[in-house]
């Protein structure tokens, strides 16, 4: 793959690691959990309580939601991000949220610890350049129809804008199989590990779209060598305003976190 000036792993180059608070991304296993959307202050505080109890180390919550239909819940916008920030502070968890508009990047960088670029915006190059200028770690999700070369080139936009704190996220790609929401491309993990020095995490929630598939695919992702996971969890999934079928309950998140921890230890001792 040509033209990957900053993202390609040079011969013998070590994995990229960087600190966010006490967390060493790329070395400590990153477990991001929280609701698809921030829906109210009470909801995100309750979610944060479960996330903290599970031992996950980052709280997620969408406030600018890229929905297929313009009539679906669009998120609480900037107000929602302030709720997420408050919940993160209350439970001592760094927070991550998606940004969809270059005009919101500065605000998101001010109130969140990580900026997420969603699958639908992986090739929104002006947005990539804008987050490249922000001095905040970026979680870049793979587009649902993007090749790994396209994915790495999108990361290259951010690094070449002088932001080297980039985490890649495999979240499934669109195939002919309709049972799952997407098809989780687990081979992307070892392939990307070879091609780049950047940390790679997996999102089994959006990849599968089904709550009961999140745990098995999380364990499979750990076995494949990922540096972390992003998991959707809601205090009352059946009432969620978005992605109700794939969000775990708090109890399910706790069980998942216990098993993932054991799987990570097992992998490290292999
Ligand atoms: C999300 O993580 O909130 C999300 C919308 O995921 P994706 O961009 O992978 O669809
Ligand atoms: Mn979601």
Structural write-up:
- The chain has 270 residues and is an alpha/beta fold.
- The protein has helices spanning 41-54, 77-90, 105-111, 125-133, 148-160, 188-195, 204-208, 211-224, 250-268; strands spanning 18-20, 23-25, 30-34, 58-60, 95-98, 114-117, 138-141, 166-170, 200-202, 228-232.
- An eight-stranded parallel barrel has the order 3-4-5-6-7-8-9-10, surrounded by seven helices.
- Helix 2 links the parallel strand 4 (58-60) and strand 5 (95-98).
- Helix 1 (41-54) runs parallel beside helix 9 and helix 4 packs across helix 5.
- The longest helix has 19 residues, at 250-268.
- The chain is globular, with a radius of gyration of 17 Å.
- The two termini are 31 Å apart.
- Phosphoenolpyruvate binds next to loops.
Short synopsis of the structure:
The chain is of the alpha/beta class. Helices cover 38% and strands 14% of the residues.
Name the strands of the widest sheet in spatial order: 3-4-5-6-7-8-9-10
What radius of gyration results from the CA coordinates? 17 Å
Q: Whole-number average pLDDT?
A: 97
SSE sequence, one letter per element: EEEHEHEHEHEHEHEHHEH
Outline type: globular
The percent range for strand residues is: 5-15%
Taking the alpha carbons of the first and last residues, their distance comes to 31 Å
Major sheet size, sense and barrel closure = 8 strands, parallel, barrel
Sequence stretches where pLDDT stays below 50 over 5 or more residues: none
Helix content: 25-40%
The number of helical elements comes to 9
Number of strands: 10
Catalogue the ligands: phosphoenolpyruvate, manganese (II) ion
Structural class: alpha/beta
């Amino acid at each position: 793959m040509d033209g990957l000036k900053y993202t390609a792993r040079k011969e013998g180059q070590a994995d990229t690691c960087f600190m966010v608070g006490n967390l060493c991304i790329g070395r400590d296993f990153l477990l991001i959990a929280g609701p698809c959307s921030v829906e109210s202050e009470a909801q995100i505080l309750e979610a944060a309580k479960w996330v903290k109890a599970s031992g996950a180390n980052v709280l997620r919550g969408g406030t600018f939601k890229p929905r297929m239909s313009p009539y679906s819940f669009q998120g609480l916008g900037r107000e929602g991000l302030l709720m997420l920030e408050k919940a993160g502070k209350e439970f001592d968890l760094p927070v991550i949220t998606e940004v969809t508009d270059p005009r919101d990047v500065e605000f998101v960088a001010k109130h969140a610890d990580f900026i997420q670029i969603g699958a639908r915006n992986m090739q929104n190059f002006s947005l990539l350049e804008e987050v490249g200028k922000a001095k905040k770690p970026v979680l870049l999700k793979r587009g649902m129809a993007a090749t790994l070369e396209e994915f790495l080139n999108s990361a290259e936009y951010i690094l070449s804008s002088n932001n080297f704190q980039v985490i890649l996220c495999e979240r499934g790609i669109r195939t002919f199989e309709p049972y799952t929401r997407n098809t989780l491309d687990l081979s992307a993990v070892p392939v990307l590990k070879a091609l780049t020095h950047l940390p790679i995490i997996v999102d089994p929630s959006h990849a599968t779209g089904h709550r009961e598939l999140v745990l098995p695919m999380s364990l499979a992702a750990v076995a494949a060598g990922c540096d972390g996971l992003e998991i959707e969890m809601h205090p009352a999934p059946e009432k969620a305003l978005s992605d109700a079928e794939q969000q775990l309950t708090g109890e399910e998140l706790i069980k998942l976190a216990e098993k993932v921890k054991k799987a990570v230890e097992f992998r490290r001792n292999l």
